[in-house]
Amino acid sequence: MITIKGVIMSGGIGTRLRPLTCDLPKPMVPIFNKPVMEYGIELLKKHGIKDIAVTLHYLPNMIMDYFGSGSKFDVNIKYYIEEKPLGTGGSVKNADDFLDTTIVVISGDAFTDIDLKKAYDFHVEKGSKATLILKKEPIPLEYGLVVTNEDGKIIRFLEKPSWGEVFSDTINTGIYILEPEVFQYYKKGENFDFSKDLFPKLLEDGVPIYGYITEEYWCDVGDLSTYINTHKDILSQKSKKYLLEDNQGEGIWAGEGTIIERGAKIYPPVYIGRNSVIKAQASLEPYTVIGNNCSIGEGSSIKRSIIWDNVDISNNCEIRKAVICNNVKIDERNRIFEGTVIGAHSKILKNSTIKPGVKIWPHKTIDENITLNENMVWEEKASRKLFGSRNISGIYNATITPEIAVKLGTSLATVIKSKGIYIVNSDEHNLSKSIKSSIISGILSTGSLVINIEDSTMPMCRFGVKHFKADGGVQIRTDEYK
């Protein structure tokens, strides 16, 4: 067993994973219904590393509340919070009082079963002060490249190269074995990065720094594609299925309290959490993962999708290679297609279609009979009820956004007369002027001309249309009392 300490870097914001990480730190994103960071703790514990420091920055309380002191995982956890981002090296140096022996540093969003014992033996055998765990990657453009000699000694680094700069296929996994003296190069509170600052400095000073190439599974859960593919990899590789506990049938995992009604169709491999209900005539196709306390309605079909906890999917829905976050309610006859992500606490009312690649941020509502083909970030609700009997009205940045206003302007000029003349005016409020600018942009995009009247009223807009013999007019006003 290895008698060293572990550090888990868990301060990342997870921008590329949004909307999964809008209200959830990246290390808490679930893989098979467990936070990805929990697998990192289990990996360290498996190799006898029970003293663990966790570096935090984004939504730290969620991580601390879940893992606590570490006692329920049979480890000892100490937390170190960065008030401002310090880089990978700076975040670990922030745990300065913990760094009194050899440490293994892993990322809180890495999913791996790397044999740390073999890596540590290599580290000791080479007399290394810093050992980087490396892995061969066919397409290495998204990673830092590392070149070693025949003995494993590192001779060159290159961060995220272009194809013309690719000179190696060994990438940096972000897992390191470090001796405490390497941290003497920087002071606590300084912002520095391991790959860009510390390791090149060690190389320059002739400090022994080696690369250990692993053949075990490793994945950086950094974006939606790798997040979905990680689940597929584990379900499809027999050697990795020990991560999923015992299964109830060949390729079917179902947690305690889960009910699969007669007539439901399950096509392995499929993973279902605890206390979920799969109703009659529902169909779960290969590489589907269902969370805890979920309900899948009659006639609904789910394929290659990741469904988090407390999700209610009604009857006759179709979901394809999507990610549905916690506490989402999906009414009947909805269609959700490839690459879609639905943020936590959202509602999809009946008979709507979410087109491929659309991302819906948390706490949104999609109205009935909607076809949504673009991301929904700022609006609270997607609705067909934009047009009234006499006007178009809505809430700024909710039901009427600058993007919608541009489309309104484009539609107006396209339907009435492209390359026409249009009067656009607004009252004195800044919100009105903002929407007016967007509508003008839309009209101009059709090749039409716009006459812009500042701080004016509806009668002035009507007069302008007649006076200038325009093809149409738009007046925008803000209602202060609603």
Automatic annotation (TrEMBL):
Compartments, as annotated in UniProt: Cytoplasm, Cytosol
Domain EIF2B subunit epsilon/gamma LbH: 252-353
Keyword Zinc applies: no
Listed transmembrane segments: none
Record's keyword terms, sorted: Cytoplasm, Initiation factor, Protein biosynthesis, Transferase
GO molecular function: intramolecular phosphotransferase activity; transferase activity
The protein, known as: Nucleotidyl transferase
